[in-house]
Amino acid sequence: MYAASIVLLFAFLATAGVDGFYFHIYKYRLYRRRDSQLEHGMHTVNALLLPLCAAPLVLADPHGAWLWAAVGINLGAFAIESIDVFSEKTSRRDLGGLTRTEYWMHFTMSGLRWMHVGLAFAIHPSSHWFGPSAWEWLPVSMAHPMTGLAWGAVVASVPIAALHVALALRGRAMLRAERSGATRPPGAPLASSMPQQVRTG
Hints:
mainly alpha, 6 helices
């Protein structure tokens, strides 16, 4: 089940990468849109939580309070995802809502992520849940290649989180500049009106 959990984690990250980098950042520049500040904020918090959610599931063998803490932080991520979902109607209203492709990707990502989480927790017997608290990092070696892959996934998620933070700060700074009447480059659109693509797919 450990290997299956890591495969699901990679599948989730691949799908989330396409959704995040192509739709959220490149195509719609949600961080730059006034109506999408809450949605991008939830994406940013979720990106920051991802390494903390994944580490106790695929990099370590937590027992007792550490294991329950892992449950708590993953529940926190679920709450953030829920706020994200409910913010999308307002965030995407002037874009025509989500495309069918994005709906499918969000459904797929949610399934992959929570199957990964469920399998990772299912590995632990009752003695881990109700025994003494302990934390042990899983070994990384040729005999344990999946752990090395898991480290790669978790480490790669850190700069992605940093990018979300940087874009959030940049977007807010640009919106403040526009509100204060700062000069924009000739022809630059207002944040509230960009982008205005015709919704397809």
